[in-house]
Specification:
Elements: H1 3-14, H2 22-33, H3 38-45, H4 51-88, H5 105-118, E1 123-124, E2 130-132, H6 133-136, E3 156-158, E4 168-170, H7 175-184, E5 189-198, E6 210-220, H8 225-240, E7 246-253, E8 256-265, E9 282-291, H9 293-298, E10 307-314, H10 315-323, H11 330-333, H12 336-339
Parallel strand pairs: 1-5
Antiparallel strand pairs: 2-4, 3-4, 5-6, 6-10, 7-8, 8-9, 9-10
The protein binds 3,4-dihydroxyphenylalanine.
């Protein structure tokens, strides 16, 4: 075939040239443009072209080379575009998981406790963490020289050297909210008061300088110890299951008379005795009692007409018993590995 025909033949191939991958492009480049390619062969033939045709053939050959090069470049752009598009959105790909935070275990348990009492008609009450002596001690029947003031290691904001009733403290219990509520409202009063409390204790696995309590208070006509016991039994069974038993042991608090501490049957062994309950079958969960008439009077409530009960519990303690948390410090360290364990507890 004459050189001109060969040029025309290759030219004719260009329009239908296709490539859908890098490999196909490379194959085309080798076929036409490499050292052993078809165009290189035509350029080799060029030296045999008669002198009078050299000018025209040279031109045609150069045009062909430009045509082939441009065609391959166009195909290369097409392949790159296709790749870019397929990289952009893969709609079959699963979505990135979205991690939501979890509720803190103490919040989970606080909510559970509040819910139980809310169903019994208790409403929420709150008070300040920085309190005066009156609301934390004096109104709650702690006399100025009463040794029970030493029951709790109080943090002082202002400590008066001669008159303890003028002290300002971080509240050491949520019983202060009882006082604030009774000062404001007349019975019937039925409140539940969650909050943070502070005590001057070294931080260990078993004690912390702050923790959380929930205080309960019910004041009305003819409220009896039997009412208290029934409400607490209901509470224990809602929290730990319908088989739960309770027992009340006589105790002492300045603000209640009589006073008691409540145990529930061990949630691990069901009361048979195990290492968790120190083989007694019981674990202590709260303090309670009938509100001392002195407290009612201090808060402006007529103790000859009204009576009431109160109870107080530690949220950390209840949470430990539910989730077997060994070290109190974990509640305030905010280690996500610990917090993540409560994802399903909501
Ligand atoms: N305030 C007590 C404490 O922090 C707990 C308590 C005991 C509260 C008996 C009460 C109660 O309302 O009646 O140890």
């Amino acid at each position: 075939m004459a050189l001109l025909d060969k040029i025309e033949a290759i030219k004719a191939q260009m329009a239908s040239l296709q490539a859908d991958s890098e490999e196909a492009l490379e194959a085309l480049r080798i076929k036409y443009l490499s050292k052993k390619g078809e165009l290189t062969a035509l350029f080799a033939e060029f030296k045999d072209v008669p002198a009078e045709q050299k000018r025209e053939m040279g031109q045609r050959l150069n045009e062909l080379k430009t045509l082939v090069t441009e065609r391959i470049t166009t195909l290369r752009e097409g392949v790159a575009d296709k790749q870019k598009q397929s990289n952009q959105v893969d709609i079959t790909r699963p979505a990135y998981p979205q991690y939501v935070g979890t509720r803190h275990p103490l919040s989970v348990v606080r909510r559970q406790i509040i819910d139980i009492f809310a169903r019994l008609g208790f409403t929420l009450a709150e008070g300040p963490e920085v309190e005066d002596d009156w609301h934390v001690f004096s109104a709650l029947n702690f006399a100025a020289d009463h040794p029970a003031r030493d029951m709790q290691d109080t943090f002082f904001i202002e400590q008066n050297p001669t008159d303890v009733t003028r002290n300002i403290v971080l509240r050491s219990h949520t019983s202060s909210v009882q006082v604030r509520t009774m000062e404001r409202a007349q019975p019937p009063i039925r409140i539940i008061c969650p909050g943070r409390v502070f005590r001057n204790e070294a931080i260990t696995a078993r004690a912390h300088c702050f923790f959380h309590q929930i205080e309960g208070l019910y004041i009305d006509k003819n409220v009896s110890f039997a009412d208290l016991k029934q409400v607490l039994l209901h509470f224990a069974r809602e929290l730990y299951g319908p088989e739960t038993q309770i027992r009340l042991r006589p105790s002492y608090f300045p603000f209640t008379e009589p006073s008691a501490e409540m145990d529930v049957s061990c949630m691990l062994c069901g009361g048979k005795g195990c290492s968790f309950c120190k083989h007694t079958g019981w674990v202590e969960i709260l303090g309670c009692g009938m509100v001392d008439p002195n407290v009612l009077e201090a808060c402006g409530i007529d103790s000859s007409v009204y009576s009431g009960y109160a109870f107080g519990l530690g949220i950390e303690r209840i949470t430990n018993l539910k989730y077997m948390v060994k070290d109190l410090r974990m509640f305030s360290e905010n280690d996500v590995r610990f917090l993540d364990e409560f994802v399903s507890a909501h």
